[in-house]
Design a protein that fits this description.
602 residues; 4 domains; GIY-YIG endonuclease; six-stranded mixed sheet; seven-stranded parallel sheet; binds adenosine-5'-diphosphate; Rossmann fold; alpha/beta; binds zinc ion; globular
Length: 602
């Protein structure tokens, strides 16, 4: 009698043994195959992980596999090692890791009948590759030289410096060698441009995308196309890092610093870190690209005390001739009385753009109307009942909303503490900024772009289309607007409220601020019109802004890393955050205290 050990999606650090039906003699090539097995009262989908000689469970108590799903190829061995690594590194049960990374359509016991056939991303009109710049050639040559085997490259270059073009050349090389390519991007709805660019360059490579906005059926189809090798290029968000790719030959992580590569619930993982592990494990090159690399990656590429773990490649110039970096200026707001939070210089700048028929973007990374509601009498402020954050005032739908945990409530008519009816919005969010600007520039067409106005991909695309076609004069936006788009008429960016990040309790806040400001600055003047960026600040001498004015990421990164090293912060130390939830505060605190004390010795 043959026994199969099966991984199941249960929160236990163990597998389960089943009897293999006589009709299904299994061999080692069946490791990684999906099976349907009975579990408790129901059936479940599992994965064969071992074919053991015997079981610790008495045979009489073993149940039989119900079906071996032979129409799906077995998952490849390196996919197993990837899962094992994640389970160990991120402290998650192996079965859960394996099954939770499968598309939902395959985890279902009775999957709906597939009706449509595979659809690959439609190629737009084919695009002639440009002649490479000298810098691009140097970078490519560096990768070509030793791309046999694992090597991690950090490709650092400002927006528009031609990083994507380098990815495309590498993809071309990989495809020609008969290998598959995995490209990770932060958020798929912000990067349809990349999708069509890749499809235009490689019309017959079977490009599929993998992200959470696909229908279950489409995701299952695309995932299978990857596993079966029909898709030669997979473009996806963080979850795509787990796609099985039997011929994988290259991984590209674009905007590698982006926080959305981190999964924040279920198994917490960093897709960028998993990608580096995967490349090493497969012995293939990986390219991490960014205008503002994460400080972890920067340290890996520049640390001179140990042999650098990553190879640093830099593009200093923009790829398109005559396209210059925007002029970045600090506006010292201390000597001035701001008008609804706006400086005279910024107002004048917007005015000029209006008369010239160009676009301005006012960047404020805080959505809603005001960050908090406050009582003018007793000082009450709208705290979240469920966590430590403040409730943000959203005037349009008249709600208080926690941007941290999602808690919502109606706006109180009076102060819950003292009954005073005069409770006021305090501070400024994008909604309030929008109405202020509408008052000041009644003739202007104003468009707000944040997570509230662009909830779905469709809404987002409509907004982008409006901006692109020039159907807006002033954009009010959060960092959402900063990513991956060329707006030819956008020539002015004003940044408000940036200072908050300089003194935030989150020690990563300055790093994030620098990346965001670089990114919004990169939006200004990408086409033939020169761009200008105005940063309102009370700390114009802060080194972060000084580096920004110079477009000098390296100077900023090196000074931040020095600070981190002196203060004992990552990447020079390790930090783990433990979070406890309980109906009783005391239980949560007791647990955390025990955890902090660590394993008991003696
Ligand atoms: P990044 O990914 O660094 O933002 P891209 O690769 O998207 O940069 O390049 C920015 C723009 O420059 C794109 O429009 C691209 O087509 C163009 N471009 C890239 N490389 C070259 C080149 N060597 N010659 C001319 N144009 C180029
Ligand atoms: Zn009050
Ligand atoms: Zn909350």
């Amino acid at each position: 009698m043959q026994i199969a050990r099966v991984a199941l999606d249960v929160p236990l650090h163990r597998f389960f043994d089943y009897i293999v039906p006589e009709t299904e003699a299994l061999s080692d090539s069946d490791l990684g195959r999906l099976v349907r097995v009975p579990f408790g009262q129901k059936s479940r989908i599992g994965i064969i992980v071992v074919l053991p000689q015997s079981s610790d469970v008495p045979v009489a108590r073993l149940k039989s596999i119900e079906a071996v799903l032979r129409d799906i190829p077995a998952l490849p061995a390196d996919w197993f090692r990837l899962s094992e690594f994640c389970a160990a590194y991120y402290q998650a049960p192996l079965g859960e890791v394996m099954l939770s990374t499968l598309p939902a359509g395959l985890r279902r016991v009775a999957p709906p009948k597939a009706r449509t056939s595979q659809r690959f991303v439609k190629p737009s009109p084919p695009q002639e590759p440009p002649e490479l710049t000298a810098e691009q050639k140097t970078a490519l040559a560096a990768i070509a030289e030793d791309s046999k085997g694992f090597r991690a490259y950090l490709l650092h270059g400002v927006t528009g410096s031609g990083k994507t073009e380098i990815y495309l050349r590498l993809v071309e090389r990989s495809l020609a060698a008969g290998r598959q390519v995995l490209m990770l991007v932060p958020e798929i709805n912000l990067t349809p441009q990349l999708e069509s660019r890749v499809a235009a360059r490689f019309p017959s490579a079977g490009l599929v995308s993998l992200h959470s906005e696909l229908t279950e059926a489409a995701r299952t189809r695309n995932w299978r196309a990857a596993l079966e090798g029909r898709a030669r290029i997979v473009l996806g968000t963080r979850l795509a890092i787990f796609a099985p790719l039997p011929d994988l030959g290259l991984i590209v992580v674009d905007e590698e610093h982006d926080a959305s590569f981190k999964q924040q619930d279920g198994m917490r993982y960093s897709a960028r870190d998993v990608a580096v592990f995967r490349a090493r494990e497969r012995g293939i090159p990986i390219v991490l690209g960014s205008a503002t690399p994460s400080l972890e990656s920067w340290a890996n590429a520049t640390d001179h005390r140990t042999p650098a773990r990553y190879t640093l490649l830099t593009l200093h110039q923009r790829a398109v001739e005559n396209s210059r970096l925007p002029l970045v200026q600090r506006i010292d707001t201390r000597p001035e009385k701001l008008q609804d939070g706006l400086s005279a210089a910024l107002l004048l700048g917007i005015e000029k753009r209006l008369t010239r028929g160009e676009q301005s973007l006012v960047f404020l990374n805080r959505r809603g109307y005001a960050p908090v509601l406050a009582c003018t009498n007793c000082g009450w402020i709208s705290h979240c009942h469920r966590c430590a954050a403040n409730l943000v005032l959203h005037l349009l739908d008249r709600r208080l909303r926690c941007h941290h945990c999602g808690f919502e409530s109606p706006i109180p008519k009076a102060c819950p503490t003292c009954g005073n009816q005069d409770i006021q919005p305090f501070g400024r969010g994008t909604q309030r900024l929008e109405s202020v600007l509408a008052e000041r520039f009644p003739q202007a067409r104003i468009l707000r772009v944040d997570r509230d106005s662009a909830r779905s991909r469709k809404q987002w695309e409509t907004l982008v289309q409006r901006i692109y076609s020039g159907d807006a004069d002033i954009l009010v936006g959060t960092q959402m607007l900063a990513k991956g788009h060329d707006f030819p008429k956008l020539t002015l960016v004003g940044a408000l409220g940036a200072d908050a990040a300089l003194f935030a309790s989150d020690w990563r806040a300055p790093e994030r601020l620098f990346a965001q400001l670089m990114q919004v600055a990169g939006r200004a003047g990408r086409a033939e019109l020169p761009g200008e960026v105005l940063i309102q600040t009370q700390f114009p001498d802060h080194p972060l802004y000084a580096a920004l004015v110079q477009h000098d990421y390296a100077a900023f990164a090196d000074s931040q890393l020095k600070e981190r090293e002196e203060a004992g912060f990552p990447p020079y130390t390790f930090q783990a955050m433990l979070r406890a939830e309980s109906p009783h505060m005391a239980d949560a605190l007791a647990f955390l205290a025990t955890a902090r004390a660590g394993p008991q010795t003696g």
